[in-house]
Design goal:
The chain is mainly beta. It is 13% helix and 38% strand. β9 and β10 form a beta hairpin.
Length: 191
C-alpha cells in the first residue's frame, strides 16, 4: 500500500501503526484546547512513504513562508521525527519515524468495507480502532508561527483501519480475556 500525495500538502499514508490514538474524544494537553490526535508510526524501511511526506512538508514550507516574513527560518520545526532519537526508550518507535497529527474536528474513522445499501464506508468505534492497530490516515501539512515558535504542523484528517495489531499501553479486548460459546443470536436463549 503506497502513500499518495493528494495535493501539494495533503498525504494519504500507506500502512502506519497508530499510537496515542485519541480519535473518538478530544483531549486537552496542559489546559490547551481539546483536540483529536494520534501518533503515526512509519517504518524507516518504507522509503516511498517517507519521500511523499517529505515532499508535502517541503511544499508546505514554500506555500506558507508568508507566515515567516517570506523566508523559511533555519530552525523551523518539522513534524517528521526519528523514533530512535526522540523516543529511544520506547521499543514501539524503534527503527521508525513518527508524526503527531491532531485536529479540533473529529476524524471520520472507517474500515475497509462499504455498506452495500448506501455505498458509504462503514464507521468503526473505539473498540475496533486503538493504539497498536494499523491504518491509512489522511494528513495535511501547514506552517505555523505562534508565540515565536515556527514550524510545520500536521493536521489529522480521516482514518481507515486496515489491520489489527498488538494493543499498546496495556489493555485488551474482551475476546482476548474470555472464552466464549458460540450461539445463534436469532435464538432466544434466555427462555
Amino acid at each position: 500500500m503506497k502513500a499518495i500525495l493528494k495535493n501539494e500538502t495533503k498525504v494519504i499514508t500507506g500502512a502506519v501503526r497508530l499510537s496515542y490514538a485519541n480519535l473518538f474524544e478530544p483531549k486537552s494537553i496542559n489546559g490547551s484546547e481539546p483536540k483529536y490526535s494520534v501518533s503515526l508510526i512509519i517504518p524507516k524501511k518504507d522509503k516511498q512513504m517517507i519521500a511523499v511526506i517529505e515532499e508535502a512538508i517541503e511544499n508546505a514550507k514554500e506555500r506558507d513562508k508568508g507566515k515567516w516574513n517570506g523566508k523559511i527560518p533555519a530552525n523551523l520545526k518539522t513534524p517528521l521525527r526519528d523514533g530512535d532519537i526522540d523516543r529511544p526508550d520506547d521499543d514501539v518507535y524503534a527503527d521508525s519515524y513518527f508524526i503527531n497529527a491532531n485536529s479540533t474536528k473529529a476524524p471520520t474513522v472507517v474500515g475497509t468495507l462499504k455498506d452495500k445499501a448506501t455505498g458509504k464506508p462503514i464507521p468503526l468505534g473505539e473498540d475496533e480502532v486503538y493504539s497498536g492497530c494499523y491504518a491509512r490516515v489522511s494528513v495535511n501539512f501547514y506552517g505555523f508561527n505562534v508565540s515565536g515558535s515556527k514550524g510545520i504542523a500536521c493536521g489529522l484528517g480521516n482514518v481507515q483501519k486496515i489491520d489489527d495489531g498488538e494493543r499498546l499501553g496495556g489493555g485488551s479486548s474482551a475476546e482476548e480475556d474470555f472464552e466464549f460459546d458460540e450461539v445463534d443470536v436469532e435464538d432466544d436463549f434466555l427462555d
